[in-house]
Amino acid sequence: MRYAPSLAESGRASVGLARRRAALGAVAVTGIALAAVTGCSSGSSKPVASSSSVATIPATPAATTPSVPATPATPVATTPATPPAPPPTPPPAAAPTLGQPAGDFAHGSSGFGQVKPSKIFNGGDPTGLVTDVVWSSWGGAQATATGTSDYVGPNQSVAQGTEQSATVVAFNLGTCDGKLMYQAVEWYFPQHGQAFNPNQYENICTGTYVGQ
Predict the structure, then answer these.
(1) In 52-205, which ranges are E strands?
(2) For residues 128 and 13, what is the distance between their CA atoms, to the nearest angstrom?
(3) Which of 45, 71, 127, 167 has the most C-beta neighbours closer than 10 Å?
(4) So what's the pLDDT on residue 58?
């Protein structure tokens, strides 16, 4: 005998069936949504190449500019400073003369008034003559020379004199009549024991004999 469900039971069964169908639909929708999401994710993803399969592109070397040798600096021409003009050189001082022709020596004398004369003569006898005079100094307080003159020994006359070597000394350097000169001169014979005597000489500024 078949069991016929009551109206109430039939209603409850219909409600339960409807609930199950709704649940199954929701599950199906959820599955479709998940599949869509998964498909999008997997479709957008690209396989990553392994490091071993990536082609290495060699780096292009940087272009280098060839070095240009430095151009040496051109020296700047400089004009040397013009040195100041040296002061004018004063004229050399006049060399002294051997006295001057004056007094007893004004006439017939030789060498007086000259610079370093090679012959001296006071205008008198042969004892007043000296030749071949060679000066070893000139311009200082004294000037000396050697020459040849007439030597007259003790108790001899001038005629008995002989030509011998003599030493000449010019001294007393100073100004006479505005001119620089040796104002005295004397000669002697050292080989005969004679020596220079500043108290016996010829004053060749005034033209006189001193101490004779």
Answers:
(1) 97-98, 120-121, 129-135, 143-151, 162-176, 179-188, 201-203
(2) 192
(3) 167
(4) 57
